[in-house]
Amino acid sequence: PVTVTVNSLPIVTATATPSTICSGETSVLSGTGAASYGWEPGALTGSPTVSPMTTTTYTLTGTDGNGCTASSTASV
After folding, report:
1. With helix as H, strand as E and coil as C, how does 10-48 read?
2. CA-CA distance, 56 to 27, in Å (whole number)?
3. Residue 38 contacts residue 45 (beta carbons within 8 Å)
């Protein structure tokens, strides 16, 4: 017999604070639910500060300790 372990996906949540800004202002992106994160567009990492010129949707991909990944989005 062979035992196969199936790990559940992380529950990743992306947020932008604030989510509505005026031109020239900034917003901080943050994520929860995983061990490491990467943001697109822009190959951003950690909790980056962004200042988009138009409404932009950022996708957060989180990876847990088992190597499982999940994604979430936040718009600014």
Report:
1. CCCEEEEECCCCCCCCCEEEEEECCCEEEEECCCECCCC
2. 11
3. yes
Whole-structure pTM over 0.85, yes or no? yes
Q: How many CA atoms lie within 13 A of 68 on its CB side?
A: 11
Whole-Å CA distances, 6 to 21, 32, 52: 42, 22, 39
* Phi, psi dihedrals of residue 37, rounded to the nearest 5°: -140, 155
Taking residue 27's Cβ as centre, other Cβ atoms within 10 Å add up to 21
Cα gap 38→30, rounded to integer Å: 10
pLDDT in tens, 5-57: 999 999 999 999 999 999 999 999 999 999 999 999 988 888 999 999 999 99
